[in-house]
């Protein structure tokens, strides 16, 4: 309600909460001077809940805000301005700060923040003043699949046109841990991304956050992502990564390597 851009609606998709969530959001709706829509959603993964929000939304742009996080007052205005001013940009994100719960403020957390605070630090992006420009050339970077694998930010940090999902599809609901940057990879194939230099979102770190909970249940997410890159992005990545993917997924390449080794021994 404090956003400087006020032409917004709030869509809340509640995954059958068993705490005080619904009571809190009903109070918010009663106090709000903007449209607030509350939907109950049958839990089937975070991707399904995100997609439910998109399907229920009526606006031109989608801006996520997860229950743990905070938007600074100018966040939506600045993101809309970028998307309206450059049609080649399909998604705009921003730098983010951190709110660390006292019980979570230990050495491991501080080390994590040091390593993941600036996700674009090693990408040498073109800086256009208000934002840095991220294009599909990032797939050729030697840092593409190096930590941090997420080069954009958590979904609370970005905004995109609702029409984008008609072009690239919704979030994959079979992924638990990497679905957000897999989505951004698809955006990069058809549009540029802008990373605002301002910290416009505060990302909360605590013991019960969904990212931490899902980390031990991510199954084959990273194997799926590797295979997806092999199938969909092979010609965009650098030579070293091409060779690794060929060794990993191409039976003919594996056979060729085996024959070469036998010839060397013979």
Automatic annotation (TrEMBL):
Question: What domain of life is recorded for the organism?
Answer: Bacteria
Span of domain Glycosyltransferase 2-like: 2-118
InterPro entries found in the cross-reference section: Glyco_trans_2-like, Nucleotide-diphossugar_trans
Enumerate the UniProt keywords alphabetically. Transferase
Please give the Gene Ontology molecular function terms for this protein: hexosyltransferase activity
- Which PANTHER family does the UniProt record give? GLYCOSYLTRANSFERASE (PTHR22916), UDP-GLCNAC:BETAGAL BETA-1,3-N-ACETYLGLUCOSAMINYLTRANSFERASE-LIKE PROTEIN 1 (PTHR22916:SF3)
Q: What is this protein called?
A: Glycosyl transferase family 2
Q: Which organism is it from?
A: Jejuia pallidilutea
């Amino acid at each position: 309600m404090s956003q400087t851009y006020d032409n917004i609606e709030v869509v809340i998709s509640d995954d059958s909460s068993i705490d005080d969530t619904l009571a809190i959001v009903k109070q918010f709706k009663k106090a709000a001077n903007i449209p607030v829509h509350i939907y109950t959603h049958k839990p089937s993964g975070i991707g399904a809940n995100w997609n439910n929000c998109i399907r229920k939304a009526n606006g031109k742009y989608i801006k996520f805000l997860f229950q743990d996080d905070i938007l600074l007052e100018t966040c939506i205005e600045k993101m809309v301005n970028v998307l309206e001013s450059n049609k080649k940009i399909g998604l705009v994100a921003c730098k983010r700060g951190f709110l660390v719960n006292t019980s979570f403020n230990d050495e491991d957390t501080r080390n994590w923040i040091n390593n993941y605070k600036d996700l674009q630090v090693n990408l040498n992006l073109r800086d256009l003043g208000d934002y840095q420009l991220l294009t599909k050339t990032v797939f050729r970077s030697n840092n593409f699949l190096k930590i941090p694998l997420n080069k954009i930010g958590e979904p609370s940090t970005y905004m995109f046109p609702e029409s984008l999902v008609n072009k690239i599809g919704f979030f994959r609901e079979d992924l638990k841990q990497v679905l957000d940057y897999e989505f951004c990879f698809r955006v990069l194939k058809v549009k540029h991304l802008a990373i605002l230099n301002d910290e416009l979102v505060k990302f909360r770190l605590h013991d019960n956050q969904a990212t931490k909970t899902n980390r031990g249940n991510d199954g084959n997410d990273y194997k799926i992502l590797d295979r997806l890159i092999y199938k969909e992005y092979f010609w965009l990545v650098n030579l070293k990564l091409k060779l690794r993917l060929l060794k990993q997924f191409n039976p003919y390449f594996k056979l060729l390597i085996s024959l070469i080794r036998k010839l060397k021994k013979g």
